[in-house]
């Protein structure tokens, strides 16, 4: 299995996976359209694009081999002249090595790669160093690596894929690149660098996704999404599978869960073992438990619910590790039961509406009536001073460590 590279230190002819050759042509009467097939040197070339003015220009195409240095293209099918003469050809986009950087007299220069002279096959090991906006004509069943290529003067080429269907494993190691658009990944999507940014801008993901610093700006996820560092969410992604935080355990918290903006949809539970939560408006369908109730190691938990957060679901906020961390709620709306468990962590509540149902099994009970004692009520958590609106039937109960419900009698 040979390594083949989309892009070298110099660049690519276009962002089309299916382009491997560029013809310089003249005397063209009917410009060939994408999909037309021409033959030269015993190789058939499928046209991917053409740029013709006054009969002259270039034609991009792809094939299993290369053409003669000059000659004629004979049409096999599609729209275009029966014969097109070309004066030159260049093998583009795909390379057998990506080139390198040379420093001469302290001035860095790019050394071009070696053209492959054909499209990749499923037997090749494909490495992507530029963004692909048109994917392969076939479903790609082999594995793919999306990487970063150093070029002259401390710059980099960043790989990315925005189209195509891939059944193999897609490995991303591209700090400023990533995958998105209309891509369909039926296999595993992962990374070999847990500390690098892992960017997903859209697409359909039917297999598991796992990475370190994971930035998701769109897409539909049918299987698991696993982060080992932080999960940063923007836009309108839809999570239909599971979310897994491998930075935390059942007894220790770690990593960050951050909703930056947009309206993502969570048709799954949000893990309780992150150490940082930043929650904003979204479509939530499962009850919340943010933070572990009884962590024994790891980081403290800091929970922030930003203005506009709203849910009718039961919400439990736990910040009980090391007497550090905090819980901050700003102008949020709760119509389900809100439970807050903390020790001496700061609790700041500003504005909002808290009207959950009455607690039917109060911890402090005398017969059929509730009994409130200042000795067991928590220190004022800021509900009143924060200006919230509360349902008077909600129960505050427990010890100074636990607040159950979300209102004052």
Question: How would you describe this structure to a colleague?
Answer:
- This protein has one helix and 48 strands.
- It is an all-beta fold and 409 residues long.
- The strands form eleven sheets. Strands 23, 25, 27, 29, 31, 33, 37, 40 and 43 form a nine-stranded parallel β-sheet that branches. It has a seven-stranded mixed β-sheet with strand order 11-8-1-12-14-19-22, with no helix packed on it. A seven-stranded parallel β-sheet has the order 18-21-24-26-28-32-34, with no helix packed on it.
- The radius of gyration is 29 Å and the shape is elongated.
- Residues 358-409 have low confidence and may be disordered.
In short:
This protein is mostly beta strands and 409 residues long. Mean pLDDT is 86; it is low at 358-409.
Mind describing the biggest β-sheet?
9 strands, parallel
Percent of residues in β-strands: over 45%
Total number of helical segments?
Answer: 1
Shape: elongated
Please state the oligomeric state of the protein chains shown. single chain
- Runs with pLDDT <50, length 5+? 358-409
Number of DSSP E strands: 48
Structural class: mainly beta
Mean model confidence by pLDDT:
86
Work out the radius of gyration. Answer: 29 Å
Range of helix content:
under 10%
Distance between the termini: 72 Å
Describe the protein's topology:
Elements: E1 3-6, E2 21-26, E3 37-40, E4 43-53, E5 56-63, E6 71-77, E7 83-91, E8 94-97, E9 100-104, E10 107-111, E11 114-115, E12 125-128, E13 131-132, E14 144-146, E15 148-151, E16 155-158, E17 160-161, E18 165-166, E19 170-172, E20 178-179, E21 184-185, E22 189-190, E23 197-200, E24 204-205, E25 209-216, E26 220-221, E27 224-233, E28 238-239, E29 242-245, E30 252-253, E31 256-259, E32 265-266, E33 276-279, E34 283-284, E35 288-290, E36 297-298, E37 301-305, E38 310-311, E39 315-319, E40 325-330, E41 333-334, E42 338-342, E43 346-350, E44 353-354, E45 365-366, E46 369-370, H1 383-386, E47 389-390, E48 402-404
Parallel strand pairs: 1-12, 12-14, 13-17, 14-19, 17-20, 18-21, 19-22, 21-24, 23-25, 24-26, 25-27, 26-28, 27-29, 27-31, 28-32, 30-36, 31-33, 32-34, 33-37, 35-39, 37-40, 38-41, 39-42, 40-43, 41-44, 44-47
Antiparallel strand pairs: 1-8, 2-5, 2-7, 3-4, 3-6, 4-5, 6-7, 8-11, 9-10, 15-16, 42-48, 45-46
């Amino acid at each position: 299995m040979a390594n083949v590279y989309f892009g070298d230190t110099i660049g690519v002819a276009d962002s089309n996976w299916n382009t491997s050759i560029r013809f310089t042509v003249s005397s063209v009467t009917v410009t060939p359209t994408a999909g037309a097939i021409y033959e030269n040197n015993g190789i058939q070339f499928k046209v991917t694009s053409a740029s013709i003015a006054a009969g002259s220009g270039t034609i991009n195409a792809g094939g299993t081999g290369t053409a003669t240095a000059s000659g004629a293209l004979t049409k096999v099918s599609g729209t275009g002249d029966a014969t097109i003469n070309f004066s030159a050809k260049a093998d583009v986009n795909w390379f057998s090595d990506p080139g390198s950087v040379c420093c001469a007299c302290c001035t860095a220069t790019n050394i071009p790669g070696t053209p492959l002279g054909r499209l990749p096959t499923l037997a090749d090991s494909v490495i992507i160093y530029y963004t692909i906006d048109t994917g392969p004509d076939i479903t790609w069943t082999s594995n793919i690596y999306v990487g970063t290529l150093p070029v002259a003067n401390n710059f980099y080429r960043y790989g990315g894929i925005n189209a195509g269907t891939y059944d193999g494993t897609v490995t991303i190691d591209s700090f400023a690149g990533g995958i998105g658009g209309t891509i369909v990944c039926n296999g595993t999507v992962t990374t070999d660098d847990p500390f690098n940014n892992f960017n997903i801008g859209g697409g359909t993901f039917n297999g598991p996704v796992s990475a370190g610093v994971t930035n998701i700006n769109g897409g539909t996820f049918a299987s698991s999404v696993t982060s080992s560092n932080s999960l940063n969410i923007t836009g309108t992604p839809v999570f239909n599978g599971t979310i897994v935080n491998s930075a935390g355990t059942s007894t220790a918290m770690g990593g960050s869960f951050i909703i930056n903006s947009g309206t993502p949809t969570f048709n799954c539970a949000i893990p309780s073992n992150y150490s940082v939560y930043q929650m904003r408006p979204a479509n939530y369908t499962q009850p919340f438990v943010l933070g572990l109730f009884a962590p024994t190691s790891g980081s403290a938990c800091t929970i922030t619910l930003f203005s506009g957060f709203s849910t009718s679901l039961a919400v439990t906020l736990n910040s009980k590790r090391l007497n550090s961390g905090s819980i901050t709620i700003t102008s949020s709306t709760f119509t389900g039961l809100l439970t807050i468990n903390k020790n001496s962590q700061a609790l700041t509540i500003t504005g909002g509406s808290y009207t959950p149902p009455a607690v039917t099994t109060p911890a402090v009970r005398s017969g059929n009536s509730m009994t409130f004692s200042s000795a067991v009520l928590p220190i004022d958590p800021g509900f009143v001073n924060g200006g919230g609106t509360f349902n008077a039937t909600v129960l505050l109960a427990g010890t100074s460590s636990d607040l159950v419900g979300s209102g004052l009698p």
